[in-house]
Amino acid sequence: MRHNVLIIFCGLLLSGTAHAERLIAPRQPTAVYEGLSTIPTWPYFQRIQPDTPSSTLPIPQGTQKLSLEDRLPLQTTRLSVGQPQMKTIPGLITPLFIMGMDPQSLTWFQQAADGLVEIGARGIVVQASNQSDWLDLQHKARQAGIDLMLLEGDALAQGYGITTYPVILIDPKTAGEGDHE
Questions:
Q1: What span, in angstroms and rounded, lies between the C-alpha atoms of 30 and 25?
Q2: How far apart are CA 179 and CA 181, in angstroms?
Q3: What would the pLDDT profile of 14-32 be if each residue is shown by its tens digit?
Q4: Dihedral (C-alpha) 105, 107, 109, 114: value to the nearest 10 degrees?
Q5: How far apart, in whole angstroms, are the C-alpha atoms of residue 147 and residue 117?
């Protein structure tokens, strides 16, 4: 008797799942960020359905997308130019590098580009003066196969405990400092 109830329950569960999958219409994923190393997240979220359609949700204040002109010049108050360094961050999935557009950072970037590509690093520029120089650097990075983004550096300085740039943030295992078996 108990065995029959379990079979009926499993059958109802499976048929309900199959029915629900037919009710959820597949949609095209929305690109939130598209770069050289972007991976799609839609497989992780395809079964999540919002209670309220997104068109009726209010847009939070201060979340409007700023134009590039509005974001530049970009300065950081907690980071300054220093000697290039590497800092290990356990659990960091994607290696990051932080740089400015000062001559020292640009020279470092030119010399380190091949190694940055090799480890799959993504770049964050925390200091940029003008649009022309930024677009030129971004173009050179794309040609090398590197993603770059502009981002305020103060939160990075606080979160990762850094004070200078350029710096590479990398998991110890990727950096070769992990356990070797």
A1: 15
A2: 6
A3: 444 444 444 455 566 555 5
A4: -160
A5: 10
Give me 152's structure tokens.
């305020």
pLDDT at 28: 60
- Torsion of the alpha carbons at 8, 10, 13 and 14, rounded to the nearest 10: -110
What is the mean predicted confidence (pLDDT) over 96-104?
A: 97
Residue 106 and residue 148: Cα distance in Å, rounded?
13
The mean predicted confidence, pLDDT, of the chain is 77
Instruction: Assign 32 to helix, strand or coil.
Output: coil
Phi-psi sector, 27: left (phi>0), alpha (psi -120 to 50), beta: beta
- Take residue 104 and report the two structure tokens written for it: 């020292």
Crossing angle between the packed helical segments 131-144 and 103-119, to the nearest 10 degrees: 30
CA 71 vs CA 35, 65, 153, 174, 178: distances in Å: 19, 10, 13, 33, 39
Q: Which residues contact 11 (CB under 8 A, 6 or more apart)?
A: none
Secondary structure (DSSP) of 138-166: HHHHHHHT--EEE--SHHHHHHHT--EEE
